[in-house]
Specification:
It is built from eight helices and nine strands. It is an alpha/beta fold and 248 residues long. GO terms for molecular function: dolichyl-phosphate beta-D-mannosyltransferase activity; undecaprenyl-phosphate 4-deoxy-4-formamido-L-arabinose transferase activity.
C-alpha cells in the first residue's frame, strides 16, 4: 500500500477545536503510515492555539494544509467545508480522521487499500462493530450504547451497515460531489455520520467496512454529550418519517 501514487490523490481531513495537545503527533503518524498522502486540518478558530500550530506545521510539511474557519459550527459543517476544498483542489479521495487519537493511523493503509482498489467503493468505513473491530478504553455500558445505536439506525433506516456512526472514513470525491448536489446535509453534530451513510446508501453508493480499533482519546476533552446523542437519534426518526411521507 505504501508509496503508491494513489496516496498523492488523497487528502485526509482532520477537524480540530482545542486539539493542540494532539495535533503534532497525530499528523506525524498519519504521514508516516501513508507516505505521499495529504492532510487538511480544518480548525474552528480554536482558542488554545491549535490553528497557529497547524500553520507552523504546514510551513514545514508541503503535504499539510490548513483551512481556518471563523467559529465553532460543528463537525458536519467542518467536514462539508473539507469536502468542498478537496473537490476544488482536484483530489480523488477524501478521508475523515479524528484529531484526538481515537482513530489509529496504523489502520489507515487498510482503508486506503480498499478505497483505491479495483472494487471502486464510494465509501469505506473503519468499523468498530464489524467482525475483527474493537474499542479500547470503553466501559461495557458505552460499548452497549454504541452498538444499540447502530442497531436502532439500521432498523429505522435499513442501511445494512454495522457501524453507522463511525467517523473514520474515505469517500470517492466524484461520488461525494454528486451526492452533495443531490442532497442538503442537515446534521451538524453526532448525526452527521449517520446522515452521510444514509444519503450514500439512498444514492446507490457502494459502501464497504473494514474492522478497526477505536481507542479512547489520549489527551484533551471529549466533545460528546448526552444531548448530542439524543438529538442524533431524534433526527433518525425524523428522516424516516419524512421518507414515508414522501412515498405516500
Amino acid at each position: 500500500m505504501k508509496n503508491t501514487n494513489y496516496n498523492a490523490q488523497t487528502v485526509i481531513a482532520i477537524p480540530t477545536y482545542n486539539e493542540r495537545e494532539n495535533l503534532e503527533w497525530i499528523t506525524t503518524e498519519v504521514l508516516a503510515q501513508a507516505p505521499g498522502i495529504h492532510i487538511l486540518i480544518v480548525d474552528d478558530n480554536s482558542p488554545d492555539g491549535t490553528g497557529e500550530l497547524a500553520d507552523a506545521l504546514a510551513a514545514n510539511h508541503p503535504q499539510l494544509h490548513v483551512l481556518h474557519r471563523t467559529g465553532k459550527e460543528g463537525l458536519g459543517p467542518a467536514y462539508l467545508a473539507a469536502f468542498a476544498w478537496a473537490d476544488s483542489h482536484g483530489y480523488s479521495w477524501v478521508g475523515e480522521f479524528d484529531a484526538d487519537g481515537s482513530h489509529q493511523p496504523r489502520d489507515l493503509p487498510r482503508l486506503l487499500a480498499l478505497a483505491h482498489g479495483s472494487g471502486r467503493p464510494d465509501l469505506v468505513i473503519g468499523s468498530r462493530w464489524r467482525r475483527g473491530g474493537a474499542t479500547s478504553g470503553w466501559s461495557l455500558p458505552r460499548q452497549a450504547l454504541s452498538r444499540a445505536g447502530s442497531v436502532y439506525v439500521n432498523v429505522v433506516l435499513g442501511l445494512g451497515v454495522a457501524d453507522t456512526t463511525a467517523g473514520f472514513r474515505v469517500y470517492r470525491v466524484d461520488f461525494l460531489s454528486r451526492l452533495l448536489q443531490r442532497y442538503v446535509i442537515e446534521s451538524k453534530g453526532y448525526g452527521f455520520q449517520i446522515e452521510m451513510t444514509w444519503r450514500t446508501r439512498r444514492a446507490g453508493g457502494k459502501i464497504v467496512e473494514v474492522p478497526i480499533t477505536f481507542v479512547e482519546r489520549r489527551a484533551g476533552t471529549s466533545k460528546m454529550s448526552g444531548s448530542i446523542i439524543k438529538e442524533a437519534f431524534l433526527e433518525v426518526a425524523k428522516w424516516r418519517i419524512r421518507e414515508l411521507c414522501q412515498r405516500a
